[in-house]
Amino acid sequence: MGLRTLHVTTIDLTAHCFLRTGFDLLRSQGHEVALACNFQQFQQELADHTDRMFQIKIPRQIQPLQDLRSLAQLIRVIRLYRPQILHSHTSKAGFIARLAGRLCDLPLVVHTIHELPQNATRSRLKKTVYWAMEKLAAGWCDHLITVSRVNQKQILDEKICRPEKLSLIPGGLALENYRTRGPAPWSLPPDAIVMGMAGRLEAAKGHSDLLQAMARLAPANPRLHLVLMGSGHLREQLEQQRDELGLSERVHFLGWVEDLISAVAALDLFVLSSHYEGLGVVLLEALALGRPVVSTRVGGTQDIIEDGVTGLFAPAHDPMGLAETIQRLLDDPALAARLAAAGQQKVHRHYSAREADQKVLDLYLELLKNRGLQP
Predict the structure, then answer these.
(1) Cβ of 347: how many Cβ atoms within 10 Å?
(2) pTM of the model
(3) Is pLDDT at 375 greater than 80 in this prediction?
(4) DSSP string of 195-241?
(5) How far, in Å, are 177, 285, 312, 330, 342 from residue 335 at the CA level?
(6) What homologous superfamily does CATH list for 176-350?
(7) Is 46 helix (H, G, I), strand (E, B) or coil?
(8) Average pLDDT, stretch 75-100?
(9) Position 1 confidence tier, pLDDT thresholds 50, 70, 90
(10) CATH number, domain 4-172+352-370, options 3.10.450.50, 3.40.50.2000, 3.90.1150.10, 3.40.50.261
(11) Other Cβ atoms closer than 10 A to 56
(12) What is the average per-residue pLDDT within 205-234?
């Protein structure tokens, strides 16, 4: 008899982008998958990868009254579904889910730290509050997973949990999907040099820095265009910044791109301008497709990029430094090709989603066995 697993995220985008391969592996081995989150746009797609789905509104920001409602909703779901394993993702959902799991005395509660919430702010007070919340919630779960060595070191340095309670399992890709490609979702001049970035339109992704870098690059590179893939609350503000920089003909906002693989494959250069990242899965995607990449040196990007070998690093919060690094690849196509080939080889060798997902399942089984529980 298989395991009943309940996975909790804040929004369905997380499950759509990062969890589907894990769901498929669990189900292929006879285990049951339920998903609880705030469904916004991917409910139909996720139905093909799950056995049960539960709508729970979990706000990303701290909202005490709604957070209590979310906790009560999740407790009702747990009592209805009776999972053996609860696995949470994202900081806010992880806090509520770990508390619900402990209150319901579930056999196994696991949380994946994709990124620590204290890295999302420069406020010392907020950093302290987020650290305290993470340390408290770590005590409510049986095990933590993190996705990068940088995160692993920070978690242990900040004493969020004991070393034996933490496993490093980097994410991966369904590499077989990165072989065939469709047409690019844009229409640009045939001689255009297309630089792109994919990510939510929010401050943490550094789009404003990238726009400023593009303004510096545009005069000397008249064929260079920038495409920005993703949706978010900053779109109007970023479009205004683009226009004020005189880039309305050179920077293109595509919104949500359904066929992201084809879009990234059509780029001449991929850029990630983030201020912080848990791992930087979109870098894995660009490299798997053989694209040269420039990334800020933040978080887990340092696991993926070896500067000058599989890509180039630029400093975060530094539009001038970002522009100079991009220009280096624009000026040296041979270097760009060499980095892209090395990066592609690394990703195909070390970042298989199937291997990563199997490690998570093996961890479930080991933790249950150590507690004298059988699936």
Answers:
(1) 24
(2) 0.92
(3) no
(4) EEEES-SSGGGTHHHHHHHHHHHTTT-TTEEEEEEB--TTHHHHHHH
(5) 26, 20, 10, 9, 11
(6) Glycogen Phosphorylase B; (3.40.50.2000)
(7) helix
(8) 96
(9) low
(10) 3.40.50.2000
(11) 23
(12) 97
